[in-house]
Amino acid sequence: MSDAAEVKARAREAAFARRRAAHAAAGPGAAGRLSEVLAGYRGAPLAGYMAIRSEIDPAPAMAEAAAHGTVGVPVIEGAGKPLKFSRWSPGCEMKDGPFGARVPAVEDFITPEILIVPLVAFDRRGGRLGYGGGFYDRTLEELRAKGPALAIGFAYGAQEAAALPLEVTDQSLDMVVTENEVITF
């Protein structure tokens, strides 16, 4: 393991512990602030995610957004590839996807302009530490090469880190929404 990979692995381990504690302590309604932010982008194609493990759950905000426009969720097509996003609506039929995430049973791919991005940790400069597969970095790079793509990190405030071990391939967030605040970069 390279030094950079080792530093990221240690940062990820500490961030997972903070996220688990925040998730255990969280009450209902954490997605309310996210809904407020998304209301300013009604009608724009949106990609959310289906929460796994101790991720903060954007589904209530996604359901609200689906009443006003297209919403998709990520589908992993393979290692080293960018994500694709399949159309999602509340109550649609779902199936198991890679890494335990649920995906729509019927593939109907969309191109989002706004992405709600899951994360392990974030910093106040727009840095994001993910799970280590590079899926969102590749996806954001590809989407941003074609046009505007707004990346909104969704996290518990406890997931904030003073600094993150970032590499040149890491794509920045444009905003982070927590249960307590909206941080723009």
From TrEMBL:
Enzyme Commission designation: 6.3.3.2
Highest taxon above the source species: Bacteria
Pfam short name (any one): 5-FTHF_cyc-lig
Key word Cell inner membrane present: no
Cofactor: Mg(2+)
Protein name: 5-formyltetrahydrofolate cyclo-ligase
Enzyme class of the recorded protein, top EC level: ligase
The organism of origin for this protein: Roseovarius spongiae
